[in-house]
Fold this protein.
Amino acid sequence: MKTAAWDFVSAHAGIFGIKRICRTLEVSRSGYYRWIAGAEVRAARQADEDALVAEIRDIHAEHHGNYGMASLVVV
């Protein structure tokens, strides 16, 4: 729920001001500023996660959708 509030504050801060929106939504300004400060870290974490998902999908595709012992080929 807080993320939606912070997104709303960011989207409308230029019109209404951060202080007024935070007071109306009953959220703390300090919480909003912490959320803004952590945006870069969250974006980096999401990029890492997206890269990992892509790697997992590539490996899964290389093994024709098999995983575990069933994906091993005995020669």
